[in-house]
């Protein structure tokens, strides 16, 4: 099945367009003063869009899991499955970053010290029980995905350079 016919790539493109729009709105949101009514409206819109995109990514992850049960039946291999998982993980991270930033600024205000705490990921002194706005689970997920990616690259490099070359050229649909 060609990429043009593969439903994954159709949905991936739709999700990527949504992420691009989300990031554009986010950059607009960053330029608006916190006390401005437009900022309040855009905050709600950003959070709703994050939820919607996260749902789409979850559904795409479910489809990848189904394909992983019998990849040959779907005409894909482990390298393609890993590529798809990596894309959904990166997409989830992009959306999560926007969502965390919007939520953090909504909760802490947009003062210079609040932005500094957010950027430095420092605890909010009056919220001792919430000492870290960013969970270690996110870090663990990122480390696990990076480890998986590195292990895949090691396995592929042991197969020879002809296996790795298509990855660097952008062709992830490798057939042996």
From TrEMBL:
Gene Ontology CC entries for this record: Golgi apparatus; membrane
Pfam entry (one): STX6_10_61_N
Alphabetical list of SUPFAM superfamilies matching this protein: t-snare proteins (SSF47661)
GO BP annotations listed: Golgi vesicle transport; protein transport
Keywords associated with the record: Golgi apparatus, Membrane, Protein transport, Transmembrane, Transmembrane helix, Transport
Topology within the bilayer: Single-pass type IV membrane protein
Compartment(s): Golgi apparatus, trans-Golgi network membrane
Domain named Syntaxin 6/10/61 N-terminal: residues: 6-99
Primary location group: Golgi
Keyword Membrane recorded: yes
Transmembrane stretches, start-end: none
InterPro entries for this protein: SNARE, Syntaxin-6/10/61_N
Record carries keyword Transmembrane: yes
Family according to the record: Belongs to the syntaxin family.
Protein name: Syntaxin-61
Organism: Hibiscus syriacus (Rose of Sharon)
